[in-house]
Amino acid sequence: MTQLAQTNELTLRDQYTFLVRSYEKFQAQKLKLNMARGIPCQEQLDLSNGLFDCTGPGDYKTGNGVDCRNYGGIEGIPEVRELCAELLETDPQQVLVGGNSSLNLMFDLIAHAMFYPLPGGSRAWGKLPAVKFLCPSPGYDRHFAICEHLGIEMIPVNYRQDGPDMDQIEALVAADPAIKGIWCVPKYSNPLGITYSDTVIRRLAALPAKAGDFRIFYDNAYNVHHLTATPARLLNILDACKQAGHPDRVFVFGSTSKMTFPGAGIAMLASSDANLNWLKKKIGIQTIGPDKLNQLRQVRFFRNRAGIEAHMQKHAAIIKPKFDLVLTTLTAELAGKSLASWSNPQGGYFISLDTLPGCAKQVVAKAAAAGVVLTPAGATFPYGRDPEDKNIRLSPTFPSLPELKKAMQLLTLCIQLVSIEQELA
Ligand code: PMP
Question: Which parts form a coiled-coil structure per UniProt (predicted)?
Answer without folding.
Answer: none
